[in-house]
Specification:
Length: about 325
Amino acid sequence: MKISGYLKEQNNNVELLHNYNNLKEYDQIYISKVFSFTKIPINLNQYKHITIGGTGFFEDGGENLPYEIEHHMPDYNLYDEYIKKEIERGIKPNKFKDYQDYSIGFAVRGCFRKCDFCVNKKYNNAQRHAPIKEFFDPSRKYIYLWDDNVLAYSKWYDVFNELADTNKSFQFRQGLDIRLMTKEKAEVVSKSKYKGDYIFAFDFIKDRDLIEKKLNLWKNYSNKTTKLYLLCAFESIDEIDITNTFERIAILMKYKCLPYIMRYEKYQISPHRGMYINLARWCNQPNFFKKKRFREYCEFNGEKSSTMRYLNDFESKYPEIAKKYFDLRYDN
C-alpha cells in the first residue's frame, strides 16, 4: 500500500494483480510474502523487472523500503477492486473489514528480546518509526498497529497520547509484552480506547512467576477480556511440552484469562500431534473453553471421533498428566 501510494503520487498507474499472468505487460512488478511456504508459481530469475521483499523471501524481511516510500501514506484503495470481485463471487463483506475499516502502520519498530522463534531481529531495541498521523486516515473507523513491542519503547506514552488524539479505537495486532507492564502502563493501556480483547503472550513456563506477578498487577486495572498467546511445540514436542502447555492454561484460568494456542510447526512431527490439535481447538474457541473441561470438549466431538482417540491414547500413556489437567474448568 505504501509503494502504491508513492508511485501513484508520481503519476504512475498502479494496480493489484490477482494472478501471475501477463507480468511482462508491466514496467515494474512488486511481490511480497510473509511466509516462506507460500508458493510462487513462476521462476523469478526470468523477470528482471520484479522486486521482492518480506520475511517469506528473506529471514529479516530484506532491504528496507526507501525512506520516501516507507513514510508515505498507504494507498488504502489498492484492494478495492479485489474486494469487489470477492464479494461478487459470494464472499461475505465482513471478511474484508481489515481492508476497509482500519488505518494500518507501525508507530514503533524493533524489540530487544530477539526470541528464537521470532523473525523480528533486525533491530536491537524498540525505536520510534512513525507518528500516528503518518498513516492515519480519519475516514476509517479504527487503527491497527503492527508494532513488535511498543511497551519496550522508552517514550511509549507518546504513542498512546497520539492514539488518544485521534479519538479512534485501536489494537496492537502483535499483542503487548505483559512482562514489561508497570502501574503507569497498566493505567494508560486500560483506560485507552482499545478495540477487542487485550492480547499478551505467555510463551514459556519458566516465566510463570513474572507472568503471574504482572497478571496480578494488570487485573487491578482491567476486567476486560484478556487473552494470552501460548507458544507450544517449540522447546520440545513430547509429553513435557504438553504438560507445560496445560500448566500455563491452568495459570490463565486462575486469572480468568483466555489462552490462544500458537503451534510451532514442529508439532506436525510430534507423537502427540493429535493432542496439540485438540488443545488448539479447545482453547482457541472461547465459547467451548469457558464452558467445557478439556475432557468434556473432546467427548462433545463423539466417542468415535479422532478427538477422543487422541485423548484416550495420551491418557493411557500418561494417566497422571490427564488426572491433573483434563478436568480443569474455567468457570471454577
